[in-house]
Design goal:
The chain is an alpha/beta fold and 364 residues long. It is 41% helix and 15% strand. Strand 8, helix 6 and strand 9 form a beta-alpha-beta unit. Helix 1 runs antiparallel to helix 2, helix 6 packs parallel to helix 7 and helix 7 packs across helix 9.
């Protein structure tokens, strides 16, 4: 049924404006009578951040910005869903057009700018599904015109701790001016200290809420040293590597669209994001798990992320070009790798190639 539905709708969705196609997809998934996916093979089960995932393939933030369809996505067979990015107050984001498909490159450029219905609307939806099961995290960001961005994150930790499986601190979007400055050592230390303190204050009522940090793939290795060191010092529960990139690889064929401002995701991001994942993995030294995201559009690319150091992965742009069949392909590839290598758990694959990846020439 899902395959038929996709074959019917995908040509139309790809022919219209990307942002209109996204809104229509959200609406269809909200109201479609979706059958529940088959149970996952037990070998795909993963434990991370104190949470038990039925499989390690999640939906990255950006697809379901306002927590409208997390349960629909879980029904389709994803192991977890990250909603957002959510800002404390509603904001419209940047002017349209602000989303561009690079068809020949299987990439996407966005400069959405944290368009969000705001914390209150998302909190209402997450609270309404709080007893529905499934792992649903929330990705939080600061308002563009906020006078105290760190206070924005602290306030939303308090707001969402009781209704979400985990919270991701997003300081790596390139589309909110100055936001990435929070990745610098001094402001990052202040941010994480205050966020973790806020999490601890509400934990008695809300229970334990893992806090993850999402970073940009454009950090220098010296900056990455600082970020990982502070994340370990402040005892975050995990990191997501990484967000979209401001870089434009020389290999891009869609030259005109590549000049658009914004963050690049999709297949062109894979080499850089995977290299940064491996660099992060060797610095973390198993202090906490990592989520790998960026450029995953095949089972082979997913496997590459695990071997570079990811315990879990997230997809989004790959779904734009390959549809929901990508999820089944990734699961099949992971199981095939376990069978080939005679392994019982995905954990045995994690980081197997990390050292080798960090020795390769820097992706251009």
């Amino acid at each position: 049924m899902i395959d038929f539905f996709e074959r019917l709708t995908r040509p139309f969705l790809q022919a219209i404006d990307p942002e209109d196609a996204h809104k229509l997809t959200i609406r269809m998934l909200k109201y479609a009578p979706l059958p529940r996916a088959a149970f996952d093979d037990r070998r795909l089960a993963t434990r991370a951040f104190g949470l038990s995932f039925p499989n390690p393939v999640g939906v990255a933030a950006g697809l379901d910005k306002n927590a409208e369809i997390p349960d629909a996505l879980l029904r389709l067979g994803f192991g977890f869903v990250e909603v957002g990015t959510v800002t404390p107050l509603p904001q419209r984001g940047n002017p349209r057009p602000r989303l561009f498909r690079l068809e020949a490159d299987r990439g996407v450029i966005n400069r959405l700018g944290f368009n969000s219905q705001g914390g209150k609307a998302v909190l209402t939806r997450l609270a309404a599904r709080a007893n529905s099961g499934g792992i649903v995290g929330v990705n939080i960001g600061a308002n563009k015109d906020s006078r105290d961005r760190i206070a924005d994150y602290v306030g939303m930790i308090k707001q969402f701790a009781a209704v979400t499986s985990y919270v991701t601190i997003n300081i790596s979007s390139p589309n909110t001016p100055g936001l990435r400055d929070l990745q610098q050592a001094e402001p990052l230390d202040d941010l994480l200290a205050r966020v973790i303190e806020a999490r601890e204050r509400v934990s008695q009522a809300a229970g334990p809420t893992p806090v993850l940090l999402k970073i940009a793939p454009d950090l220098s290795l010296a900056e990455l040293d600082d970020v990982v060191g502070i994340a370990r010092l402040r005892r975050v529960d995990g990191m997501i590597v990484g967000n979209t990139t401001l870089a434009r690889p020389a290999s891009l064929r869609e030259a005109a669209k590549a000049k658009e401002a914004g963050g690049l995701s999709g297949r062109p991001l894979l080499p850089l994001a995977t290299r940064m994942l491996a660099e992060t993995y060797v610095r973390v030294e198993s202090a906490f798990p990592l989520i790998g995201v960026g450029g995953i559009d095949s089972g082979a690319a997913a496997l590459e992320k695990f071997r570079a150091g990811a315990s879990l992965i997230q997809v989004y742009s790959g779904l734009v070009f390959h549809g929901l069949g990508l999820l089944a392909e990734i699961k099949a590839a992971l199981l095939a790798a376990l069978k080939r290598d005679r392994l019982e758990r995905l954990l045995e694959l994690v980081g197997a190639d990390a050292a080798a990846v960090t020795a390769e020439p820097w992706p251009g």
